[in-house]
Amino acid sequence: MRLRLIAVGRDRSGLYAPAVEEYAGRLARQARFELVEVPEARKHAGTPRARDEEGEALLAKVGPRDRVVVLDERGEELASVAFAARVGRWIEGAQDVALLMGGSDGLSDAVRARAKETLALSRLTLAHRLARLVLVEQLYRAMTILRGEPYHK
User: What is the DSSP string of the chain?
Assistant: First the structure.
């Protein structure tokens, strides 16, 4: 099973990328993990067209048999232990999982329609780059919980 985070945009601020890389490296030692970035639709930013273009770019990176999980503020919120249990079920299912994170314009209807699950990291509005960091850290935390390691105290 492979976990892939497919996200719109990159961290041009330099604030979050080092921490994402740190947790992605830790996670990659425990699972097949990949971070895939697709470009923002800057030309049409703030319009439904941007959301649709970014949605097409996200879906182009998804395999036909991938289990698609989207991150959205209206999704199901889970505590870390419950999230770890969910990740454990994904692993047991042996199906590749694509976690899709949209840009500032949100997710297109086509992306939502392709999703098997919709999860929320928080009811708070998070900067998209910060949300990416939180998700990668929580994936790493989930793996340590599943392995019984002391990271999650």
Answer: -EEEEEEES--SSSSSHHHHHHHHHHHHTTSEEEEEEE---GGGTTSHHHHHHHHHHHHHTS-TTPEEEEEEEEEEE--HHHHHHHHHHHHHHT--EEEEE-BTTB--HHHHHH-SEEEES-SS---HHHHHHHHHHHHHHHHHHHHT-TT--
Residue 32 within a domain: yes
Q: Do the domain assignments include residue 152?
A: no
In this structure, is residue 153 part of a structural domain? no
Query: 0.90 exceeded by the pTM?
Result: yes
Q: What is the pLDDT of residue 109?
A: 96
With a cut of 50, which residues of the chain have pLDDT below it? none
Alpha-carbon gap, residue 68 to 113, rounded angstroms: 10
CATH number of 116's domain: 3.40.1280.10
For residue 13, the enclosing domain spans 2-147
User: Is 55 domain-assigned?
Assistant: yes
Per the structure, the count of domains in the chain is 1
